[in-house]
Design goal:
The longest helix has 19 residues, at about 230-250. The protein is globular, with a radius of gyration of 17 Å. It has one domain (about 10-290): Peptidase S8/S53 domain (Rossmann fold), CATH 3.40.50. The strands form four sheets. A seven-stranded parallel sheet has the order 4-5-3-8-9-10-11, with helices on both faces. Strands 1-13-12-2 form a four-stranded antiparallel sheet. The protein has a two-stranded antiparallel sheet with strand order 6-7. It has helices spanning about 55, 80-95, 110-125, 145-155, 230-250, 250-260, 285-290, and strands at about 10, 20, 40-45, 65, 100-105, 105, 110, 130-135, 160-165, 190-195, 215-220, 220-225, 230, 270, 275. A hairpin with a 4-residue loop joins β14 (about 270) and β15 (about 275). It is α/β, with parallel strands linked by helices. α3 (about 110-125) runs parallel beside α4 (about 145-155), α5 crosses α6 and α5 (about 230-250) runs parallel beside α7.
């Protein structure tokens, strides 16, 4: 989801998805209890969380902040329950994490000032270890806009920031570049592979001198109601969950370095005449290295 689209969905508008049925990477769902994100504080900056979902019932009131409506409760009002889906992916991969929810938009309409406030809240008040932004803004070419600057400041203070790289869709032309804050130099920008493991056709890959996205992950999920969702919005929380799972043992910044260094071979970029510079996350390999150390 983005101000321009970091996630797209094929859905039945009459039904609101409640939870994820089929996870993008099942290898993450077989972790032993010691690797499920115990102690990790993961803040989701998104559209909020569905009040009656199993995910929301496990989140305390003090872990929720609504930056759209100061008197609200960060309820997910987006038609596709975008924030709820992102939260479900993280919780099902890393069930022991403490989730924080910061609502900054409804549907595809994301508020920039609300996002800046949410980043400050995650850092200064809530005490996040990892922040997930499955959203983005267009218009910044150098990664120096307000949201990129704010995201980088969190990373300098030891907080890992993960962001969806963005998608091509009917509202986003092929000439588009990475969304912000994925463009920020210190942010982990996540692209996607499709169900066959190929570089997803909807990826936005950087051509302006930046080696972004930093890593690729599966971007297709199936919901209990039968919908199929695709997008970098849903690849980003896969990486976030892996960082939380590994970070409890080795530190969250070190977990990022390990995931990037153990990523599988790069994949072919359609129409580009070459191979991407971005490896596909291989959690099994990263876990093997971390658990043997």
């Amino acid at each position: 989801m983005s101000k321009g689209g970091a996630g797209t969905a094929r859905r039945n508008e009459r039904e609101a998805p409640q939870y994820v049925r089929s996870l993008p990477d099942p290898r993450l769902s077989v972790l032993p209890s010691g690797w499920q994100g115990h102690g990790a504080r993961v803040c989701i900056i998104d559209t909020g969380c569905e009040p009656f979902s199993p995910i929301r019932r496990g989140i305390r009131n003090e872990d929720v902040r609504d930056f759209v409506n100061p008197l609200g409760h960060a309820l997910d009002e987006s038609p596709d329950r975008h924030g709820t889906t992102v939260a479900s992916i993280i919780r099902q991969y890393a069930p022991a994490v403490t989730l924080g929810v910061a609502k900054v938009g409804v549907g595809p309409n994301v508020d920039l000032e609300a996002t800046l406030q949410a980043l400050r809240w995650a850092r200064d008040e809530w005490g996040a270890h990892v922040v997930n932004l499955s959203l983005g803004f267009h218009g910044c070419r150098m990664g120096t806009c307000s949201v990129c600057t704010q995201a980088n400041s969190l990373v300098r203070q030891g907080i890992v920031v993960v962001a969806a790289a963005g998608n091509y869709n009917s509202n986003v032309p092929r000439s588009s570049e990475l969304t912000c804050p994925a463009r920020a130099s210190r942010v982990v920008a996540v692209g996607a592979v499709d169900e066959s493991g190929a570089f997803a056709a909807y990826n936005i890959s950087e051509t302006n001198g930046l080696a972004k996205p930093n890593i690729l992950a599966p971007g297709t999920i199936k919901l209990a109601a039968g919908e199929t969702f695709t997008g970098t919005s849903f690849a980003a929380p896969v990486v976030t969950a892996a960082i939380a799972a590994l970070g409890q043992r080795m530190g969250y910044t070190n977990a990022v370095d390990l995931l990037v260094s153990t990523a599988s071979e790069t994949v072919k970029v359609p129409g580009a005449g070459g191979w991407s510079r971005y490896g596909v996350m291989d959690f099994a390999r990263a876990w093997e290295v971390a658990s043997s150390g």
